[in-house]
Amino acid sequence: MTAKEHELIQLLETRIRQLLEQDEDLREQCRGLEATIAERDGQIVELECQKQELKAQYDNLKVARILELSDSDTRNARQKINRLVRDVDKCIALLKA
Fold it and tell me: Which tens digit of pLDDT belongs to each residue from 31-83?
């Protein structure tokens, strides 16, 4: 083998080693990215669960608020009716007098 051929073989071996190192680095980077993706997927699932719980709580709060307003409106309506009945009674009393 000539010196030039020997030099070419060494250059080829060096480049193969570099490619293998790059391949290993890329595989390691890929594993890290896959772990990050899995972690984010877990976070997404957890946040979706929290979102559903919060939506259920919000819906319950809306219903409670509606019921509260209904009770308040009913009380106000009864009070107004009672006032009107008292006014009518006073008017009837005045007419009789």
Answer: 999 999 999 999 999 999 999 999 999 998 988 887 776 767 778 888 888 99
Expressed in angstroms, the distance from the first to the final Cα of the chain is 139
pLDDT tens, residue by residue, 4-25: 999 999 999 999 999 999 999 9
53 CB-side CA count, 13 A: 6
Find, among 83, 64, 84, the residue nearest to 72 by Cα.
64
Full-prediction pTM beyond 0.85? no
Q: Which amino acid does the sequence have at 72?
A: S
Residue 6: both structure tokens together: 């020997």
- Dist. CA 36–CA 41, nearest whole Å: 9
Question: What token pair was written down for 82?
Answer: 């009672």
